[in-house]
């Protein structure tokens, strides 16, 4: 690309110099040397164009420069050397302008390749040695200095780091990371130097995979896209037929030359590739890598979208959603014991349990005598007690199941969640209900995709029907295809492709065949399988489904701008052809007019680069959103306290119930209500400015008022419980009030997290 750009620039400069030199010779009274100079420059461009056309035809591509070749050849044959020189300059400058526009449009795609590190700073004893990137191995301790790029995937060893991930994700503001947090290669250290532990070799890191995809995208992109080729194949014979008719009618071959000169389809040769590459670059800056221009055209016409469930519509990671303790058990103690033991396991569910304990700021103990049974669970000694964590059969052993376990199992099956059971000293003490939750950006992404023209959304999964239909119903997808084998998935996608452009989104190895079968396969590449990214035509480098809606909008508008450039440019060219055929536009003037049309077409196509530029002021930083989520996570124990008390209202003695309610009210006053008050006075005004409008946070503030009213109602019921004659009648009302408060708080937290997540988009 760089070589071609400078070659065309040199050729254009030489042609312009020849025209200028010939003009000076002509004015100096030396027409013969001037003609020879114009002839030489034109002949060079003619030969180079001929070679390009032959190569294009050998690759079975349309030779859209054919009319330009005829124009130069015809002008030379008729002795119109100055006209031939001007046409040659027009062609060379057009190619140079195209190369410049493509370089400008591909700037975001090139930025990734420019930031690939070549070396890493590795600790060897007490020394720091610079080693080749390929020499880095998992387990190496690395130093990343200020301004350097994180060389491989790893975890942070220092207390804190500030990373700039703009090149990878489009997130313009730096992100704060803490000790133990995963680091993705390709991010730039925007703060002080920090130490990290390499967890992957360079070739296995995220940056290497992304670079391979970018290089593939650049190499597979043709200079002229299929849209241009289709129009050019129709335009070239039309122009030649009109030129022949003008010659036959007038008997003047110069008229035919003039027609061919203004008929050069430069709006096709230049504008369409520039618009398509600009769209690819615009999407890359937003974390969407499109491998070739043909995918842009298909995205613009997409009507049906298939989704994989796990990892695409849902998070693909287990998350603690509830704790069910045995009567008398302390829920936090159950979590702490389980997480302490699970520190020794690398299982995904074990990591989720440990993460849940850390979110609750629980102090974990170091277990001993640990043994793990694959597929069942893990056991060991924690604080002198024998703890078993895993499946129900593994944790319970030979003991009969208590009634609370049977109720939990039924509820988990209905909700599509699973449970990790915890036994202490041979007795089941609790269960941790785990679920793969719907991603925060999924509801908004589905709404935006419908607005972008998706008429049919289908969830395609091998999961159980009841689980799939529950999630599909919550999200409002048009159709749910559950318990699908890989062959059934391929058949469903193939049938859809016969009725319109079909997209498929997935992230796992098992999704690769379906991604390849769809008109456009879209891989969740931020943490998805490499096989999925290789099979797909579009890769979402950011772990956000709503970026796909952005790509669809850009594709649609880029296609519209390309068609606009083509229609306007060819329309003007056809008008000029008619004028030239009638003898009112000589070849030289026609060449100058065509150059103006070319410039206008390219400038119009470059408008794609300005589409949907969101100002920084209209976004929340990722760090701000993370802190808000941490605040909500810190209040989860209060929500669990509400649920636990509501479940046991009927069975607790009056004194214990009143004491539990008083503890709950104290937690609500100390944690929940101050948090909601701060949101109303500090956070909501900031969010309102980002959203715009008179009072966009009115409904969220109304929820705060309902929470205050609910807490006041609980205070009134607590007073009633103190009077023996009022206690019994108040119990049903208390249970309803507790469940209502639990529901409204969980719904409100979910709404806030989705809103903040979307504003960080």
TrEMBL record:
Alphabetized PROSITE patterns for the sequence: ATPASE_E1_E2 (PS00154)
Top EC class of this enzyme: translocase
Protein name: P-type Zn(2+) transporter
Gene3D superfamilies, A to Z: Calcium-transporting ATPase, cytoplasmic domain N, Calcium-transporting ATPase, cytoplasmic transduction domain A, HAD superfamily/HAD-like, nmb1532 protein domain like
Presence of keyword Cell membrane: yes
Species name: Zobellella denitrificans
MF terms in GO: ATP binding; ATP hydrolysis activity; cadmium ion transmembrane transporter activity; metal ion binding; P-type zinc transporter activity
Domain P-type ATPase A residues, every copy: 116-215
Lineage, broadest ranks: Bacteria, Pseudomonadati, Pseudomonadota, Gammaproteobacteria, Aeromonadales
First-listed, main subcellular location of the protein, grouped into a coarse class: membrane
């Amino acid at each position: 690309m760089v070589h071609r750009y400078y070659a065309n620039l040199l050729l254009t400069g030489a042609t312009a110099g020849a025209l200028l030199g010939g003009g000076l010779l002509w004015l100096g009274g030396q027409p013969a040397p001037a003609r020879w100079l114009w002839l030489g420059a034109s002949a060079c461009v003619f030969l180079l164009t001929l070679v390009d056309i032959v190569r294009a035809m050998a690759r079975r591509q349309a030779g859209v420069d054919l009319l330009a070749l005829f124009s130069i050849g015809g002008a030379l044959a008729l002795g119109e050397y100055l006209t031939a020189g001007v046409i040659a300059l027009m062609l060379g400058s057009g190619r140079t302008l195209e190369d410049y526009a493509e370089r400008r449009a591909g700037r975001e795609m090139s930025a990734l390749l420019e930031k690939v590190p070549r070396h890493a700073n590795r600790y060897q004893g007490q020394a720091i040695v610079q080693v080749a990137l390929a020499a880095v191995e998992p387990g190496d301790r690395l130093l990343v200095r200020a301004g350097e790029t994180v060389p491989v995937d790893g975890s942070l060893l220092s207390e804190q780091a500030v990373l700039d991930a703009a090149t990878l994700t489009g997130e313009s503001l730096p992100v704060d990371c803490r000790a133990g947090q995963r680091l993705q290669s390709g991010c730039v250290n925007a703060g002080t130097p920090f130490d990290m532990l390499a967890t992957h070799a360079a070739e296995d890191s995220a940056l290497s995979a992304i670079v391979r995809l970018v290089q593939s995208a650049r190499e597979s992109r043709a200079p002229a896209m299929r849209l241009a080729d289709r129009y050019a194949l129709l335009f070239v014979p039309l122009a030649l037929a009109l030129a022949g008719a003008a010659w036959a009618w007038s008997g003047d071959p110069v008229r035919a030359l003039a027609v061919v000169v203004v008929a050069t389809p430069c709006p096709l040769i230049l504008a369409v590739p520039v618009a398509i590459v600009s769209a690819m670059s615009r999407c890359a800056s937003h974390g969407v890598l499109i491998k070739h221009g043909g995918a842009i055209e298909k995205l613009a016409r997409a009507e049906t979208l298939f989704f994989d469930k796990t990892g695409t519509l849902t998070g693909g990671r287990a998350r603690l959603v509830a704790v069910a303790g045995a009567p008398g058990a302390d829920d936090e103690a159950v979590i702490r014991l389980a997480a302490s033991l699970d520190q020794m396991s690398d299982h995904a569910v074990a990591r989720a349990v440990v993460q849940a304990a850390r979110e609750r700021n629980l102090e974990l103990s170091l277990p001993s005598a640990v043994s793990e049974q694959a597929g069942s669970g893990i056991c060991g000694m924690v604080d002198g007690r024998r703890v078993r964590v895993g499946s129900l059969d593994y944790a319970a052993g030979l003991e009969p199941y208590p009634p609370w376990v049977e109720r939990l199992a039924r509820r988990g099956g209905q909700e599509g969640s699973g449970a990790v059971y915890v036994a202490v000293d041979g007795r089941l003490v609790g269960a941790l209900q785990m679920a793969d939750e719907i991603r925060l950006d999924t509801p908004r992404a589905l709404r935006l995709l419908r607005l972008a023209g998706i008429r049919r959304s289908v969830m395609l999964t091998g999961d159980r029907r009841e689980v799939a239909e529950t999630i599909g119903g919550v999200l409002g997808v048009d159709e749910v295809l559950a318990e699908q084998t890989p062959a059934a998935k391929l058949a469903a996608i193939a049938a859809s492709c016969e009725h319109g452009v079909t997209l498929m989104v997935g992230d796992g190895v098992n999704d690769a065949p379906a991604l390849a079968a769809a008109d456009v396969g879209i891989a969740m590449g931020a943490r998805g399988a490499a096989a999925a990214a290789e099979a797909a035509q579009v890769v979402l480098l950011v772990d956000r489904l709503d970026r796909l809606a952005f790509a669809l909008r850009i594709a649609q508008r880029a296609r519209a701008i390309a068609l606009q450039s083509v229609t306007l440019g060819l329309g003007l060219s056809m008008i000029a052809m008619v004028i030239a055929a009638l003898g009112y536009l000589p070849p030289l003037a026609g060449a100058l007019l065509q150059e103006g049309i070319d410039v206008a077409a390219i400038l119009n196509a470059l408008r794609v680069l300005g589409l949907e530029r969101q100002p920084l002021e209209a976004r929340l930083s990722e760090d701000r959103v993370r802190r808000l989520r941490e605040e909500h996570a810190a209040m989860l124990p209060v929500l669990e306290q509400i649920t636990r008390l509501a479940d046991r209202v009927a069975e607790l003695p009056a004194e214990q119930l009143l004491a539990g309610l008083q503890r709950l009210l104290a937690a609500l006053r100390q944690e929940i209500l101050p948090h909601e008050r701060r949101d109303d006075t500090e956070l909501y005004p900031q969010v309102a400015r980002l959203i715009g409008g008179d009072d966009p946070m009115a409904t969220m503030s109304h929820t705060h008022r309902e929470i205050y009213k609910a807490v006041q109602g609980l205070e009134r019921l607590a007073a009633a419980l103190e009077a023996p004659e009022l206690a019994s009648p108040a119990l049903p009302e208390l249970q309803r009030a507790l469940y209502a408060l639990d529901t409204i708080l969980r719904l409100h937290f979910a709404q806030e997290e989705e809103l903040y997540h979307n504003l960080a988009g």
